[in-house]
Amino acid sequence: MAPLSPADEERKARIISTVNRDHRRMLSHLLRRHTSLSSSAASPPSACALVDIHLKYGVLIRAPSGKEYQISFDDNDDADDGSDSSTPRGEASWADVEARIIAMGNAARAALGISDVHITRSPTFGLLDWASYAFIFFFVGCVATLPYVRPGSGAWGAIDAVFPGGVGVYRSVVKAVTWPALAIHVAEALAFDRLRMRRHDVPRWSALWWKWEINVFIQGYGAWKKIGAFVDEERKKQSKTK
């Protein structure tokens, strides 16, 4: 193969620099989509790097492990990815190679079921949020201290005096609510991980993931509303830049 012209060498270097500066998450998606790498093996995205570009052989990407993977431009040509029909197909050229790489990244992201909105923000807190946290912690306290609410104890007398129906009803309510409430909160946290955290590419077990999962475990629907508002806000920003 003939050596690249100075202009093409400069263009190649610029593309590699741009991708490594702005699109490392896309490289992680490409590795997950076109190699055997798992999400954890292709993370963190900041440790992925575009090493080389070849018009015939495609892109060479270094994974966080240091191992390099060749991904051909042809891997994207027959994909039913819903990409724009104007996306360059067939033989790549230096005039369209950057668009080809971006199209491959978009197709990989779509195939992985990942949204174009990446959540990087922690959940916010207002007065109602703190009130719901206080209620949950109060109930946890009720559950934790239930074994100590015994006849003759100060807690028994105090609760019997203020709780509707007396201490017997109090104990029955706490026992009846505990396990169903726990099951609902756990199920909601699992659903949130699958339907929101995974979709918006928040790495499982990361600090951000824990913040959101704890928030949805305690608040439930409020966390779904928060992340929905964040996504709407990001989409508005994207529409303004188009």
TrEMBL record:
InterPro entries, A to Z: DUF2470
Region (Disordered): 72-92
Origin: domain of life: Eukaryota
Biased composition (Acidic residues): 74-83
Domain DUF2470 stretches: 12-104
Record-given protein name: DUF2470 domain-containing protein
Species per Swiss-Prot/TrEMBL record: Escovopsis weberi
